[in-house]
Amino acid sequence: MKENQNPYAIVIGLDCFTGLQTARILAKRGVPVIAIAKDLAHHCCKTKVCDEILEADTGSEEVIRKLEELGPELKKKAVLYPCTDLSVLMISRNRQRLQDRFHVVLPKADVIELLMDKINFYTYAQKAGMPVPRTYFLKNGEEALRAARELNYPCILKPPIKTPKWEEHTKAKVFKASSRENFLMLYEACSDWAEVLMAQEWVEGSDASLYSCNCYFNANSEPVVTFIARKLRQWPPETGTSCLGEEVRNDVVLEESVRLFRSVGYRGLGYVELKRDEQTGKHYIIEPNVGRPTGRSAIAEAGGVELLYAMYCDTVGLPMPDGLEQKYTGVKWIYLRRDLQSAAYYWRRGDLSLKEWWNSLRGRKAFALFSWSDPAPFWGDLFNGLKMILTKKKTLRGTQSVKPNRQSSEAALE
């Protein structure tokens, strides 16, 4: 490391497209990047934008030990960019061990625990009068039976936080139940995978009814950057991860997101997803993601808003970039392979024509993986997708663990 070089950004979780996007964005701004990944064979680790890629389990104590080994080698205090929920938790819970060598840009530990634990968050949100769907937390079969009688259908079932035990059994992050019988069948199948499951009423609306606010709050809990977007398609449909999104204006989403984060004295990168009920027009908070970039961080950068770089500059004391205000230019973000899967699904259902699909892709856009200057991750992902098709593996994951009559989603590192 050169003496006059800017401090490193440490991207934790390069082996997901969120980590890859983060590394690319920062490297493009001249920030030197060191990445840590659990799976060095992952296609995202084929990127050439990092000065070094280290191996460690990013969701365990191992990543903390790796950072402690790395710290003395750095001449300047580096900025941590955890890119998965478990890495955020590990850093938050071990911040005292890291803060001498690294900038830990997170709110207080109790705020992280509050917002990441769905039980704590929904309890807090309901007491604070924030708009959230009706939610039940299920610890046993009796509570599941009571919820089954009281819920309106369809509804969803998911763990408060995805643990290694959950991920051992399924890549799905959420299941959708169409009826009471379907709900109880899903609960029976999943109840051993988590100590607590949460059931939540479904908010009516298409993929395009899902809005998000990506933001960065400074040490004074003031929103330095905010960026509003919405999904156009996701994969798998209804309960999956965004594969095509666009920048939009939605002041309700902005106000509710800022209100939530200010109420807890927030600091760092944040994300809130809300869904607009197509029947009532009311917006409901679906979930926050805290302490990390998301898959849609790149759409902000494509729209001229320096979300990730603003955090870096604010943290290390560099002049803030000019692009801090959203201009609403309608930029889009796309994960090409997954969007083709999603579009094919809607086309087969008769809900999307070829002309509508083509029009949805038009306009300026950012890509989840594709890059002319850094093509290897994209081709690696495409090869993996083709391999899945040729070997007849199911792309709708989790189907072997749970019986039919439900929608499942792939594991998503947003």
Description:
The protein has 414 residues and is α/β, with parallel strands linked by helices. The protein has 15 helices and 17 strands. Among the domains are: 9-104, Rossmann fold (3-Layer(aba) Sandwich), CATH 3.40.50; 207-374, ATP-grasp fold, B domain (D-amino Acid Aminotransferase, Chain A, domain 1). It has helices spanning 17-28, 61-70, 85-93, 95-98, 109-116, 118-127, 141-150, 164-169, 180-190, 251-263, 297-302, 307-316, 336-349, 354-361, 376-390, and strands at 9-12, 33-37, 52-55, 78-82, 102-103, 135-138, 155-158, 175-177, 197-201, 210-217, 223-235, 241-247, 268-276, 283-290, 332-334, 365-367, 406-408. Strands 14-13-10-11-12-15-16 form a seven-stranded mixed sheet. A five-stranded parallel sheet has the order 3-2-1-4-5. A five-stranded antiparallel sheet has the order 6-9-7-8-17, sandwiched between helices. Helix 3 (85-93) packs antiparallel against helix 5, helix 5 packs across helix 6 (118-127) and helix 7 packs antiparallel against helix 9. The model is unreliable at 395-414 (pLDDT under 50).
